[in-house]
Design goal:
The protein is 39% helix and 19% strand. It is of the alpha/beta class and 237 residues long. A 9-stranded mixed sheet has the order 4-3-5-2-1-6-10-11-9, with helices on both faces. A two-stranded antiparallel ribbon has the order 7-8.
Amino acid sequence: MAYTRVLLKLSGEALMGSQGYGIDPAIVQSIAEDVAAVVASGTELAIVVGGGNIFRGLKGSAAGMERATADYVGMLATVMNAITLQDGLERAGVPTRVQTAIAMQEVAEPYIRRKAIRHLEKGRVVVFGAGCGNPFFTTDTTAALRAAEINADVVFKATKVDGVYDKDPAQYPDAVKHEHLNFQQVLSEELAVMDSTAIALCKDNNIPIVVFNLFEPGNIGKAVAGEPIGSRIGNPV
């Protein structure tokens, strides 16, 4: 395997599949099977999951909610997704722990960096919920932060598209896919990969990002093996 320890970022929207809301059990099962194969190969894997399939803080704020309040509601949505993922992973035979940035000890462990690393070393998957515990920060930024904290080799951004394009491929048939990018290009061209805080964190800590299609079975394993799928973002060599 090309990577020993990886941080997988899943959007909440990915979990709802073709549904307009909520969680598609078939998608959770597919993710769990792919993750089980990766963990069986010896790779240590942590997951940060979003909550946009249930509630998105920015939309709540736009509808009149106070931004901080809306973001806290979004954090709770990510915990729902994290617990659902834990159930799917454990049914696939993968020992899993959920750690949350907001204490809720009846359903999950509090986030403790050293404990998270120990779980990974023991072959358990760790799912990080509740974002980073603070409003005004996205789960993309949480993914970059947790990747730096646990010394991950790479961040996998699993999305609905097969990489990074110069414009939205769903709207523009002539959109061009970037196979390789550096962090400065992403920031200066304002490419919609992750928010700028997340990109800057990965840039400063020299953690590459690989963006690929989550819905292609086996893609997580291919990414871990270092196969040239999706788009890779990193610092210039």
